[in-house]
Amino acid sequence: MPIDFYYTPGSPPCRSVLLTAKALGLELNLKTLDLHHGEHMKPEFIKLNPQHCVPTLVDGDLVLWESRAIIVYLAQAYGKDDSLLPKDPKKQALVNQRLQFDVSTLYPAFSDQYYPWIFAGVPKSDDKEKKIHDALGFLDIFLGSSTWAAGDSVTVADLALVASISTIEAVGVDLSKYANVSKWFEKCKTTLVGYQEFNQKGIDGFKIMVANLTKK
């Protein structure tokens, strides 16, 4: 039975799932939703996901949303080994901490500042910009003690964080003063399977959308 994946290519959370599926060698049945035209508000999708958000994954009788939950599920259900999500409790705890950092600190700092500006023309705030840089500073510290986000090999934490970081860079936030983040990010671009196909293409489309929506 195919695994259906409802998504929009420019979304960082959606891109993290695509990267995870690619790393696992997993084929998803891709179903693009045009949020600007309200496809996520259609009754059939709301019946599937009452929160009508993307990404949403359907695997048999399991309907799952929230990208970090999805990538953990995919790694557990379809991983040929535990490299993307270690079974060792301490190693897995570190992966989960990085995922929680992404969902509760890094990505919200970006979205609180830039989505109102992109979609509603709300002026950007110095205080909100500082929160982004505070989060980048924390990530820089994390990456100072390991090769990858949660240890010495790629995990789902890297696949989530790189989707956020690449989006932050795409809106013009300067990453250069965060040496560890910059080094890790460049390594992600050349090392992660499917980066160009599933992340960079989404970023390119996101940049075009931002340019169109914010031009005066």
From TrEMBL:
Superkingdom of the source species: Eukaryota
Q: Please tell me whether the keyword Oxidoreductase is annotated for this protein.
A: no
Record CDD domains: GST_C_Delta_Epsilon (cd03177), GST_N_Delta_Epsilon (cd03045)
Q: Any idea which GO molecular function terms this record carries? A: glutathione transferase activity
* GST C-terminal domain location: 88-211
Q: Which UniProt keywords apply?
A: Transferase
The record's note on quaternary structure and interaction partners says:
Homodimer.
**Which family does the entry's similarity section mention?**
Belongs to the GST superfamily.
Supply one GO BP term.
Answer: glutathione metabolic process
In this protein, which residues make up the domain named GST N-terminal?
1-82
Asked if the Swiss-Prot or TrEMBL record annotates the protein with the keyword Transferase, the reply is: yes
The record's listing under PANTHER family reads: GLUTATHIONE S TRANSFERASE D10, ISOFORM A-RELATED
One family from Pfam that matches here is GST_N
Put simply, this protein is called: Glutathione S-transferase
